[in-house]
């Protein structure tokens, strides 16, 4: 699932492929980057995903896959990451509040309440599961709430203006590669000058550097290489990137990327 999650088992990380090879064996060092057939994201089924999330408890533990203890360190890391971006910014300095930001795939509003309302005047929320958004709707600082998946969110049509930050965390694994690229391509017209698209996600540690499909919530966990390739295809540049420190051992590494249109 895109929430904090246990890494693949060690023997899955290191063992050689068990299928017969059609080409000469290669060593780990010369192993070419592979795309499995069918690609992991082809298994994504949004009906199954929504059925999983709709039956999940509307709590921090629920949205964090049973690892609520990760929330504090995650929010601290995110706050530092954003503050560093703003310290180097003329358009969005830390000396004044951001005007409008949006929490995408927001769940119960853990990041909205734990970080974004503190740094922005208005925080919009995009989240397909209504039971989750009931927890955050109407709270101080919360603006529009869109109960749709990111693949069906067309922010320019909503006419609410520009976002200084578009925060996407532990949710873009619910989108196929093509949906993710199309979504990123829709964002530049609603991003303020000098604003950032943040993507904070688990990274796959697969031994063949492949993305990993998770049938629990019908999502994929991507590699760092894949993320960067998709950003490139969407016309985005990575202006800053950082590994989340202090994640418990045994969970996937988590990386934040700050993107701006090229
Ligand atoms: C692991 S939770 C993360 C929630 C929140 N970002 C956080 O970090 O607390 C994943 C969230 O993605 C939502 N989700 C599922 N499918 C989605 C989609 N197609 N687009 C956006 N969000 C989706 C789920 O309902 C769930 O709230």
UniProtKB/TrEMBL annotation:
Enzyme class: transferase
SUPFAM superfamilies associated with the record: S-adenosyl-L-methionine-dependent methyltransferases (SSF53335)
Gene3D superfamilies xref list: Vaccinia Virus protein VP39
Positions of S-adenosyl-L-methionine binding: 105, 110, 169
Single annotated GO MF: N-terminal protein N-methyltransferase activity
Catalytic activity: N-terminal L-prolyl-L-prolyl-L-lysyl-[protein] + 2 S-adenosyl-L-methionine = N-terminal N,N-dimethyl-L-prolyl-L-prolyl-L-lysyl-[protein] + 2 S-adenosyl-L-homocysteine + 2 H(+); N-terminal L-alanyl-L-prolyl-L-lysyl-[protein] + 3 S-adenosyl-L-methionine = N-terminal N,N,N-trimethyl-L-alanyl-L-prolyl-L-lysyl-[protein] + 3 S-adenosyl-L-homocysteine + 3 H(+); N-terminal L-seryl-L-prolyl-L-lysyl-[protein] + 3 S-adenosyl-L-methionine = N-terminal N,N,N-trimethyl-L-seryl-L-prolyl-L-lysyl-[protein] + 3 S-adenosyl-L-homocysteine + 3 H(+)
GO CC field: cytoplasm
GO process annotations (BP): methylation
Family according to the record: Belongs to the methyltransferase superfamily. NTM1 family.
Name used for this protein in its record: Alpha N-terminal protein methyltransferase 1
Taxonomic source organism: Recurvomyces mirabilis
Lineage: Eukaryota, Fungi, Dikarya, Ascomycota, Pezizomycotina
